[in-house]
Amino acid sequence: MAQQSVVNQYAPFTTQTVMEFVKTLSIFDHPNKLIVKEIGDGNLNLVFQLVELETNRSIIVKQALPYAKVVGESWPLSLNRAKIESESLRMTARVVPNLVPHVLHTDHELACTVMEDLSDHHILRTELISNQHYPLLAQHIGYYVAQTSFATSDFALHPFVKKELVQKFTNPDLCKITEDLVFTDPFFDHPTNDFPHELRHAVETIWADEDLLTEVGLLKFQFLTHAEALLHGDLHTGSIFVTEQSTKVIDPEFAFFGPIGFDLGQFFANIILNTLSKLATTDRQAIVSDLLRAMEQTWITFAQEFTKLWDESNHEIYTNVPGILPRFLLKVWTDAIGFAGCEIIRRTIGLAHVADLDTIEDFHIQIEIKERALQLGADLIKSRTHLYSLGHFIQRIKGALRS
Ligand code: SR1
Ligand code: MG
């Protein structure tokens, strides 16, 4: 009877019930000898690791909670995000199977996904904080975004198929989190914001900047309305696992059809935040150069791969009109810079911070770097249409690192 309720009815798993659930799946040869640990450190979900003692084989079971774990039950969230995540992982695996975790099983009723355990990988954010360099990361992420976005765009799909997918990946709850936490709350005096009073002057400068608010408003409307391709939707450095040779993009529960520049922008922003945090260190020169090169390489790989796909696999007659690709890439580029600016600002003063900045030990230096982050974020948003090239963009970041 107990097992039936585990299998059929949603309830948050415990280490006991998740084990009972996994026994029903015939994944392990010795399902009675499992070690189970809850290892979730994210904002929203339960994550269990189950290891088979005899073989040391392990899997992950990720289950959505009906509320945002980071805030509590007062912030209800739809369980449908578990379905979005597993379907997005399966869809993405069609074009980049080596860059995402392998899904073993999905249970929509229990809002959970059973997948490959990536414990041999490390979370990119933590690695960047401790100055580790991953030479293949930029190519992998550029390739990931090009492949996943092109394959789900109107350039590759029949319009009926594309519109069916847009419906399937409509993700209102999670998009609302981004609409609020990335594009709205940090730009107004809102209770979800979180910053020390030493930053208040810099924050009030943001709130009073009407030119900035105009541009952020326009970026928010792009996010709301430009259903260009299936995005990851939350591509920060905590959503990426790495080893020397391998990169895995995890956690696409925010997936939806949106502007392609959004994923690139979030990735850039989190690299920039890490770069800024290096101002607190003495031997920063080489690390900063590596990080700036990683952004350049990400864009170069993205643009090359997207162009290749455009030339070889398109199903849209307008892709044969020569002027369209450069204009489209310029739009993606400009959007990416603007979205990066919004992400930099929200990670500095909004609800969800990044450890890159918050773990800077010297509080005065932390405040000084956060002020620079706010200025750079605002600058990228306002000048995005003038930063036509990679060179302009990198120069602007170098300027923020110097000033
Ligand atoms: C309430 S969720 C806060 C943040 O965590 C997620 O990873 C997203 O980035 C979201 O904005
Ligand atoms: Mg996440």
UniProtKB/TrEMBL annotation:
EC numbers: 2.7.1.100
Keyword flag Transferase: yes
Reaction equation(s) it catalyzes: 5-(methylsulfanyl)-D-ribose + ATP = 5-(methylsulfanyl)-alpha-D-ribose 1-phosphate + ADP + H(+)
Positions annotated to bind ATP: 45, 62, 116-118, 251-253
Domain Aminoglycoside phosphotransferase: 36-269
Residues involved in substrate binding: 234, 346
GO MF term set: ATP binding; S-methyl-5-thioribose kinase activity
Swiss-Prot/TrEMBL keywords: Amino-acid biosynthesis, ATP-binding, Kinase, Methionine biosynthesis, Nucleotide-binding, Transferase
InterPro entries linked to this entry: Aminoglycoside_PTrfase (IPR002575), Kinase-like_dom_sf (IPR011009), Methylthioribose_kinase (IPR009212)
UniProt pathway: Amino-acid biosynthesis; L-methionine biosynthesis via salvage pathway; S-methyl-5-thio-alpha-D-ribose 1-phosphate from S-methyl-5'-thioadenosine (hydrolase route): step 2/2
Enzyme class: transferase
Any one Gene Ontology BP term: L-methionine salvage from methylthioadenosine
Function: Catalyzes the phosphorylation of methylthioribose into methylthioribose-1-phosphate.
Assigned protein family: Belongs to the methylthioribose kinase family.
HAMAP family in alphabetical order: Salvage_MtnK
Oligomeric and partner information: Homodimer.
The protein's name in its UniProt record: Methylthioribose kinase
Native species: Croceifilum oryzae
Gene name as annotated: mtnK
